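Lecture 7 notes: from sequence to structure.
We start with the chain below.
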Amino acid sequence: MSQPDADMAWPDLAGRLVKDEAGLAHVLPVRVYFEDTDFSGLVYHGSYVRWCERGRSDFLRLLGNSHRDLDVGVDAREPAAFVVRRMRLDFLKPARIDDVLGIRTRVKEIAAATLTLDQAVYRDEVCLFEAEVMVVLVGRSGKPQRLGRMIREALART
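Predicted structure tokens for the same chain:
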């Protein structure tokens, strides 16, 4: 396989950070493929959850706090990972094969060891799905950890 031309811009697979009237958000573009749909041709409900996971991961990555960084331990702390504690999901309208969607993620609340995010899936300007997701930072020992300085500083910019 040949290398792309130097003039050709490679797409940013991690999406992008955007500023709007509500503050900083992350938007991840996703195309709906056959594997994302169910027997009716509509997007399977689990696909929305999977896309939101990607959105949360890339949001943290673009803020400078990737899962890999957490796994090796940052802020001189035990290696850790964010795990989902709670999800509230609202399926508003269906998406279909070949739709191009935007997964929007923004911080709702920051607490000692938890982070609550608002996420939404859009097709153009139409909201198809909304989620409120609380994640907890958990060390390899299985115990919750307070969010470290680097994570807090990055999230404070949102």
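Points to note: The first strand starts at residue 16 and ends at 20. Strands lie at 16-20, 23-31, 80-91, 100-110, 114-123, 126-139.
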